[in-house]
Each structure stands twice: as structure tokens, then as C-alpha cells.
Amino acid sequence: MPINIAIIGATGSIGRQTIEVVEALGPEYRIYGLSAHRQSGLLAEQIRRWRPAKAVVTDPEHYQKVAAAVSGWEGELLAGPEGLLALVTDPKVDLVVSALVGAAGIQPTLAAVQAGKRVALANKESLVAAGEVIIPALETSGATLLPVDSEHSAIFQCLQGSAKQDLQQIHLTASGGPFRQMSLTEMESITPEAALQHPTWQMGGKITVDSATMMNKGLEVIEAHWLFGMEYERIKVVIHPQSIVHSLIEMVDGSFLAQLGPADMRLPIQLALTYPQRRPQPFSRLDLYRLANLEFYPPDPERFPCLELAYEAGKTGGTMPAVLNAANEEAVYSFLEGRISFLQIPRLIAQVMNKHIPMVSKQPDLERILEADQWARRLTRQLIKAD
Ligand code: MG
Questions:
Q1: Residue 292 pLDDT > 90, yes or no?
Q2: How far away, in angstroms, is 382 Cα from ligand 1 center?
């Protein structure tokens, strides 16, 4: 019996690379379900090629386009966020690859966890905003959460065979993005085009801008807190521009364990699909002899305030991480549309977080988290308009 995979967010960068991995793994894995938001052309192509049992178009306006383009396909085409929930909880699905971008991933990721699925998690925002409900749900349902994010996959691999009490701290590596050597004055005039050029990784637009502000690393700190049950004081960030060491753990006796590999997301994706087994892969390999001058240095909090904001949000907890995440999403999309400057991104997030301090709800349920998310989006948009 093949392992039935549902890929939500199939037309994005992680979704497309997951399909490449599944193709290389062969018939043992079957693409059972696919979803896309608006990329109807690519979704229709994927449906014709892979013949999944189910597919979902989350933006209802694009439903008819896909339906018309896949005539003759015998599967079921669903619409909207409800369609997504139906797909991830389908009893025939063994493994859900959660690859949506942003807070849109919260509900389907939680539903997959509640349904006891094996979940390969690429959508870090769901854990950032809703770790408070996803982690307890994991414990109740017996679902498995496998990290796809390269840093978290690295930590996960380093932790195999280590006892929790032997672990001193986690070191998340960050490339530092394209602007790691820029002065604050130069950073004032960063354009969306420049922010979309990442030095080492090929990724989607939102995460590429997050890498440039280092908010991506901030979100990853919160993600690591939930995935590995670590206090924020024991999660460190280190700049490593070569993106070869994907992260490290430091043991109580002073030993470091690291995971190294090429900067190729298909490797952590594959491990999340085949774990606990490892399989050969045709994509890329690291040539040790070509590695020289691996650098590690501390991040500069003045030029990259997003990192500090994320630590603050994480330590405050409750609804604050959801607010951080929502304000960041709104700010990033406004920056990409040319409506705000690069350095306004952290300023806006800080303003929205400050306003939220007296309203923080501790141990929120899903409803509270989604409310906080919506509140932060409205406020961020108001602040952008008033500017
Ligand atoms: Mg990452």
C-alpha cells in the first residue's frame, strides 16, 4: 500500500519541491491530494500529471478555471478553506505536507494534527501563532510533527540519540540575508527587488523578505521553542553566511553537534517524508573539499530589530506571537507593493505589539488566536494608511 500524501500549498516553492521528492522516491508514495490558492494554471497541470484523488482551490474565484482545465480527471475538486480541512482530515491521508504561506496554515495544520496525521511542517507561521493549541493537540491525538524547515530538521537530526537533560542550548544558523553587511542608512532605501534576491536559498517571496529582515529567524526561534520544548534563553541565533551548517546543538559537556548539507530544501523535505528511514536522493551532495572558511558571528540587533521583536513576542507568549506574525505579514506585503519602506517593517510590528501588551490573552484558544491575528492585521493596515 503506498503512503498517501496530501500537499497543501502545492504550487508554492516547498509544494513544488515536495512533488519532485515524491517523484524521485517512486511508487511507494502517492500524491493523494493537492491544494493551491490562486495558481490555477499550475494546479491544473499538477492534477493532470499526478491524478490525485482530491484537489482543493482555496480561492473560490479560481475554482471554475481549474474545474474547466481538468475535465476527464476522475478525482474530486473541493473549494475554499473548508475543502482544505476536508482534505487534511480525509481518513485515507497518511501524511500531510503543510506548505501554505503565513497564518492561512493555522487551521489546516491544527486540523491535521487533531486528526492524528503525520504532518511534515513547512508552514512555520502556524506554530508561531498557534503553538499554544497545536502542541497540546499533538499530545492528545498522537499525531507526529516533522520539521521541514532546514534549521529545525538539522536540530531534529542532531537530537536523535541524545537525552534532553544533556542538551545545553540550540544554535539556529541564519544566512543573514542579502543585507547583512549594509549600514542602517543604506537600508533605508532597500527596494522589493533587492530584498527578493537571497544569496544562498531559492524561496518564495514572503520568506525571502523575512530572511532579509531576519524576521524569518525570529519566527524560527519561536518555532524551535514549540518543536523542541526549549526556553527562549536557550535558543541562540548565529549568522553563518554559507548556509552549509543548518544548525547546531550544544551539549552540557561542551560538545557541539551539527548537521551539514547543501542548501537544498528537497533534502529536509525528503527526510520528513521517509523518517525514520533515510533514502538516497538524486538532487545534490556536499563536496567537503570545496568547503573552506565557514564563518559564524553574532547578529546585529540594531540593524535587524525583527529578531529581538520575535524573542519578545515569544517570551510574552499568549496571543503576542500571533500578533507579531500577522503584523509582519501585512507589513511585508505592503513593502512588496511599494507602500512602505524596508525599515518600516520592524517599526510597524513594534507599534502593533506595543498596543497589544495590555490585551495579551494567556493560554488562548484557537478563536482568541485568530481574533488577535485579525486585530493585528487591521491595526497594521490602519497605521500604514495613516502614514
Ligand atoms: Mg529555515
A1: no
A2: 30
Q: At the top level of CATH, which class does the domain 3-148 belong to? A: alpha beta
> Can you tell me the distance from the alpha carbon of 112 to that of 102, in angstroms, rounded to the nearest whole number?
17
- Distance from residue 205's CA to the centre of ligand 1 (Å): 14
Torsion of CA 148, 150, 152, 156, to 10 degrees: 80
Give dist(CA 130, CA 328) in Å, integer.
15
Q: CA angle at residue 376 from 196 to 148, to 5 degrees?
A: 50
| CA of residue 265 to ligand 1 center, whole Å | 9
**CB-facing half-sphere around the CA of 77: CA atoms within 13 A:** 25
pLDDT tens-digit map of 3-51: 999 999 999 999 999 999 999 999 999 999 999 999 999 999 999 999 9
Q: Please name the amino acid found at residue 191.
A: T
Q: According to CATH, what is the number of the domain 317-387? A: 1.10.1740.10
Measure 220 CA to ligand 1 centroid, in angstroms: 7
Query: 65: CA distance to ligand 1 center in Å?
Result: 34
Q: What is the pLDDT of residue 160?
A: 95
Separation between Cα atoms, residue 311 and residue 218, nearest integer Å: 7
Distance separating alpha carbons of residues 285 and 163, to the nearest angstrom: 29
Q: Strand order in 54-57's β-sheet?
A: 76-79, 54-57, 29-36, 3-8, 95-98, 118-121, 144-147
CA of 62 to the centre of ligand 1 (A): 30
CA of 8 to the centre of ligand 1 (A): 18
What is the CA(201)–ligand 1 centre distance, in A?
Answer: 10
**Domain chopping of the chain, boundaries:** 3-148, 150-263+285-302, 317-387
Q: How far is the CA of 154 from the centre of ligand 1 (A)?
A: 10
